[in-house]
Amino acid sequence: MTACTHAARHGRFNDDDSYTITSSPPGPWCLYLWNAHYLASVDVAARGTGMFKDDEHRRVTLRRAGSPRKVFVRDMRSGEWWDMTDWAKDGDVVVRRGVIEFHRRPAGLELCLSIFVDRVKPMEYWHVSIANRGGRARRFRVFALNHLDVGGFKTRFGNWYSTPGEFDRGANGMLFRCISLERPSDWHNGFLIASRAATGFDGLEANAIGSGSWAAPEIVARGRCTNTPEIGDDRFLAALSIDVPVRQRSAAEAAFVTGVYRRRADAVRIARALRAAPGAAVRERAAVEKLWERKCSAVRVGLPDKAMERIVNYWLPYQLHLNAVWTRIYSHGFRDSLQDAEGVCALDPGRARHNIEQALMHEYPHGRCVRSWGGVEAALKDEFYADSPMWTARAVAAYVKETGDRAFLDARLPFLPDIKTGNPAPPASVYEHVRRALRFLYGDRGAHGLVRIHQGDWCDTMHQAGTQGRGESVWLSIATVDALNHWAGLAGAIGDHAEARACRGMADALSRAIGKHGWDGKWYRAAINDDGMWIGSKANRWGKVFLNPQSWSVLAGINTPGRQRSVLDAIDRKLDSWLGPHLLWPAYREEVKGIGALTGFGPGAIENGSVYSHGACFKIAADCAAGRGDHAYRTWTTIMPGGLADSSPRNTNACGEPFAFTNCRFGLEHPTLAGRANVGAWATGTAAWAFLAATEHILGVQRDYAGLRINPCLPRHWKSARIIRRFRGATYDIRIHNPEGVSTGVVSITVDGTPIKGTTVPACADARRHRVDVVMGEG
Q: How many CA atoms lie within 13 A of 90 on its CB side?
């Protein structure tokens, strides 16, 4: 059982797997709320961004990162007032999928502010409930203050644009319009509206805050707004006040809604619907919670480790959906979208298909693919990161295995214009897109027969290793073997045996080059740069061994038994730790030319020797491929939110949310911050790979073309485990029995009481529930 003492330090998990925060956390804990077009981040002080994206992936920033959301409740008789986000005095915060609640309990009152995002519309609700436990009726005035932006684009004068705002009686709220000839869409408009008749408004920060502060605005202390609009040339906010009378020993509720709109009529329509249907916000919240229960329930596990079970069942699917819809928030990464598609496929095959199609439409006709797209400044979108094509084969194969939809391979998708001529190219099938991507990779090899690295592979900050076109990546060459193996399997399944033979031939040739040039004696090197310097070699002073080439050599199946033992030994002895496996060892202590920015990070920071959760999940998959169930389980429960790394008494820097995977933690070589979450949680490829590691690798329920292949790799102390999984229309209740306490080995499988041959449960597609019993053992 994983001891999650980190979670207990600052709150508690509830029976429904939500989490109550009872004391100020050690870091900027937050919850993400979203639908397909609108996203909000809300931290424990209700600060955070609000962002809209249209169908062309253009972003509108309703609220900037760190911007405050403020709701105040004022007793109009006594003049006493309460900041709903100042909960530490007499309340707590509850986070759950889709909703964050701020509770306060001053004498005689119970106050709650619930923030959630509409299921469809680009807006967030701020729902306020007031329970009066006293013996007299009371009248409250509720103030809402929203720090708006409605920008998110650059002009020739930087970020300057005029944003006038005024009170609109038809909308019963504040409407702001961004005025700029350079705004990229009609969506750069924001609103704050109320469910009850507004008693006042403000559009200027100087008037609303006055001589006070965001924690104590002058309009709240005074008890009324100034009713001043904003003409567009000063610091603006949206502020509204409403009156809420509450009878003795009774309760009342109200709501504010803020979001973006295209036309005034859209905002007016939202306002009229909100006021015409009392309790609309309460019903929408219930629908949001029901939606997330449905979206996260396609895979459920029952584990001896209840802390791991909670994360896999409740929180990890939620985080995975976030990444599948919003990728890395500000833009869409090619490799990111495809890994998210592979991870989310069991939960939402439609979203997986959408992500795959979007990615393949950002491929050039000759097979090269972009690094990212979308957003104001898509991260690294013009850089030549070499690994993008590799991920296409894994994602498409995963989708076809999951759905059985082989017709998808014939769907025709466009390419980007030719990268040299700018000329358009005719569309091609999904199958042809992947085939060209893999040919491009294989054809883009250097002097050692390894795939060129150009401006980076998976490691974004190894961006100087191949800028002159001579550097080669050992890791990418290994990963390309893995991709070719996946594609050979798919080609064989659909009867294209010539393609399968060609892929196996390319994989064999690459494997020979890797074995000859990539092997360093006891582990695989990472790359060779333009100047012929090997990276990840025992000859180096820093960065002697990298984690990913070792893990992926196991996944790709390129090792002899002796080399397999050697690379696993290198992981265990050089890289692994009580904090989790480090990305490289030893960390760089000085900048090394010809590698990239990673050598300039502090030792143990980010790619320079941190415990990178994404890379750790590759290692978990490799452990399972090698039959090392105890190692896989220990790493999973070490890096999980609130797990062994965060809960260890040695980790005095633990600060991450106990309900969301962090991108990485500072490694043990960092002089002061070892163990501290770095870069941030939520938006990380870890979510997809942690989900796959738990369900497909440790529990071993793996989608395949004919059905579900069962190949568990359990920690030996688990005597049983369970996974309930929807697959091609049917539901499989899979009970794993491990009476001998082994890590691997399946003795028998029965489906609805009938023994089957082999380890693949045939796809039934009959919309029924089937019980599958798996008995493990040495036999």
A: 12
In 3D space, the residue among 229, 239, 63 whose CA is nearest the CA of residue 151 turns out to be 63
Q: Give the Cα separation of 274 and 118 in Å (integer).
A: 12
CA dihedral 505, 507, 512, 518 (to 10 degrees): 160
C-beta neighbour count of 14 within 10 angstroms: 11
| CA pair distance 210, 216, nearest whole angstrom | 10
Beta bridge partners of 622: none
Calculate Rg over the CA atoms of the chain: 28
Same topology between domain 35-294 and domain 699-776: no
Evaluate the CA torsion angle 148, 152, 155, 158 in order and state its sign: positive
The residues, ordered by sequence, that sit 6+ positions from 242 with a Cβ below 8 Å of its Cβ are 141, 142, 194, 195, 196, 197, 198, 199, 254
Domain boundaries, the chain: 35-294, 699-776
Asked: is 35-294 a CATH 2.60.40.2000 domain? The reply is no
- Return the C-alpha torsion angle 161, 167, 170, 175, nearest 10: 20
Closest by CA to 580, choosing from 492, 476, 661, 701, is 661
* Tens digit of each residue's pLDDT (9 = 90 or more) over 425-467: 999 999 999 999 999 999 999 999 999 999 999 999 999 999 9
Rounded-to-integer distance, Cα 137 and Cα 163, Å: 41
| Cβ–Cβ < 8 Å for 498, 518 | no
Residue 573: Cβ within 10 Å count: 11
CATH annotation of 699-776: 2.60.420.10
pLDDT digits (tens, 9 = 90+) for 555-577: 999 999 999 999 999 999 999 99
Task: Give residue 159's pLDDT band: very low, low, confident or very high (50, 70, 90).
Answer: low
Helix/strand/coil percent split, the chain, to 5: 30, 30, 40
**Percent of the chain with pLDDT strictly greater than 70:** 98
Work out the angle at residue 307's Cα, subtended by the Cα atoms of residues 618 and 13, and round it to the nearest 5 degrees. 130
Q: CA separation (Å) from 433 to 139, 353, 406, 430?
A: 65, 14, 15, 5
**Contact criterion met (CB below 8 Å) for 255 and 189:** no
Question: Any idea what DSSP says for residue 519?
Answer: B
Which phi-psi region, left, alpha or beta, contains residue 85 (left: φ > 0; alpha: ψ -120 to 50)?
alpha
The pairing of beta strand 769-776 with beta strand 730-737: parallel
Max distance between CA atoms of the chain, in angstroms, equals: 85
C-alpha separations of 608 from 24, 534, 581, 591, 687 in Å: 31, 17, 13, 11, 21
pTM of the full structure: 0.97
Quote the tokens at residue 768: 């029924």
Which residues fall within 8 angstroms of residue 452, CB to CB, at 6 or more apart? 386, 444, 445, 446, 466, 469, 470, 471, 472, 473
